[in-house]
Amino acid sequence: MSIRELARRPVRNLEPYRAAAQVDDTIRLNANEAAWRNNGDTFRRALNRYPEVRPSRLRQLLADHYGCDPANLLVTRGSSEAIDLLMRVFCESGRDNVVTTAPTFSMYEHYAVVQGAELRQVETAPSEDFRVDPARVLDACDEATKMVILCSPNNPTGTHVPTAVVTEILERRAGRSIVVVDEAYIEFAPSQSVVELVDRYDNLVVLRTLSKALAFAGARCGSVIAQPELIDMANAVQAPYALATPVIECVENALEADGLARAEGGIAETVRERERMRARLSEYTWVDKVWPSAANFLLVKVDDAARIMAHCATHQVLLRHFGGALADCLRITIGSAADNDRLLDALSTLEAGND
Ligand SMILES: Cc1ncc(COP(=O)(O)O)c(C=O)c1O
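A: This is the predicted complex of the input protein with pyridoxal-5'-phosphate.
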């Protein structure tokens, strides 16, 4: 099956929204916009005008940054929006299913539920460092599996999915499922992105975001990277003018050389701090395990997660706790060196039994 045939029927040949023409040096009386600029409109592109339906320069800059052609990239409001768009393009409510691993990022389940798709979760084992077994993922798939989602590095375990695992699943699901590789944290991993495989596999979709490594979570900017046929369908489903003018301008600035150099420094510092924190946390008697992480957080198994969370909260340090299979674990985001020292100070009083 072609990628177009895998999509939901109403989306296969859906025309994108046709916006009013935007031509420089013309009097624009074609979009019901205001003719004047309001207070606070200090942007290069006036806010009384709609932004471009799709931000072309930003798309080019992101494509250059990720090493793909602009025709392979759709700019989204964070990768969260990308997950939602893909569900809506490919999953028929009440019929199709999505296969992913567990534990993983909860938004996959959220958007599958919203779209009415069944979510099948293939458990990964803490005792195997949450390794993804491609045979088990493939076993969970059937003729109604439209999407396999691999989160690499995985949130909340920090596990990187090796490229050989991704390609095995891509090849075995060719013509049957798209394979979404969510690389929200890839910049913190020692390994490469799979973006370069997009030309080779028409069922590969890579999700990238500026929220983590570029320190731009507040800007809401992500990318879907795939072959143009898939990008065109996602483009037709996405709301027009999805990216706001202030966001476009801020992100264009962040993608200039000095913004990227700043991000590189931030990534290096995060990776150094992650390894320092991993060593320090491992020393506590109440820590059973700190898993290796390829992301900007650590998953830590402890003797009493609720007690430690509460203790840290009294020291104004917030950690993340999940239920289910991770009930005895905490996810700790790597902060600045000073933030991390604050956490260690709080934890040392716990160690001494002072809480
Ligand atoms: C694995 C993963 N994917 C996607 C996202 C969403 O990122 P964005 O801010 O780009 O929507 C997150 C956010 O935490 C995440 O952990």
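The pocket of pyridoxal-5'-phosphate is lined by residues 78-80, 105, 151, 155, 182, 184, 209, 211, 217, 222 (CB under 6 Å). The chain has two domains: 3-11+50-255, 260-351.
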